[in-house]
Amino acid sequence: MSEKSPHNPPLHARVPVATPHLLTVRDYEKAAREALSPMAWDYFRSGADAERTLRENLRAFRRWEIHPRVLVDVTERDLGVDVLGARASMPILVAPTAYHKLACPEGELATARAAAEAGTIYTLSTLSTVTIEDVARASKGPKWFQLYVHKDRELTRSLVARAEAAGFSAVMLTVDTPLLGRRLRDVRNGFGLPEGMVMANLVDAMVQAGATSGSALTRYVASRHDASLTWKDVEWLRGATRMPVLLKGILRADDAQRAVDSGASGIIVSNHGARQLDGAPATLDVLPRVVDAVRGRIPVLFDGGVRWGTDVLKALALGAGAVMVGRPILWGLAVGGGEGVRQVLEILREELSRAMALSGCPTIASIDRGLIERRQR
Question: What is the pTM of this model?
Fold first, then answer.
């Protein structure tokens, strides 16, 4: 990177968190663009290829309107939910995202602490810049571990064993990544981690492969994804751990049914933040059919495009048990470290609580499909 300039700020620039101008997730996104290096901003923000699905994830929420109920006592609103035995203070969980030290020197430590302070579940990415064990020591809140299955099954098994030993309570298998989608901004930028920043959980494997810096890390990640991953591997993973197994990346009703049949403990309706297959549907559009296929047998969680509390309300109305947020967490982290993450979570909490009050929903259970209707074209 070149020296500091208005167009190329230092890696960990900071904007004050507690200002009247940071009222929404969008405000944090704008501030994060100034706080991050151009390469980091492009990595976090970009989608695959022409980014059609990235745009549709956001637009999908506009296709649904809230039809509020009136004359309901909403003096008190209860936002709490239980997911796989973990209690969250709200149905807004932290999705797994990679390389948090690109946004903040403390990286995933700051994010995990902030999630715990907000009383919600944090999911650590395989591609974190802090180890499983260090995150476990930093946060006493509920934690899940996101897993990419590597070609080296012993490496995969060891990651799961480490997470279980460290006190993580669930493993989230990403199933939509037989290989990496093409993110044109990363290709053009020659994306790589800065000197001294590593994928902390994979250090030994990287050293053995000679991938210790820069774009070699990206090539290493791409080479380790196992394109032969099948439903049999879900059974293998279930046998390798006592933790419940969630499948992240389900978009089809038949795959949702198969997930239930495979013994999965939960699924996440997700298109990987539109970073894999451009042209895949917006996750909100497919959520109802997945929920209908599951028929309440396992939890259905949701991610993709959540930026407002009303977005959360709409996803819950369509059957999600909770939503997961990824990029908004990174914007908060870039702007104000752990405090920025906490602020973003509190913004979404307050927006959801207000939306529940204004739509006549005092509890999460009172949010149902009758609350929303698809807009007529």
Answer: 0.92
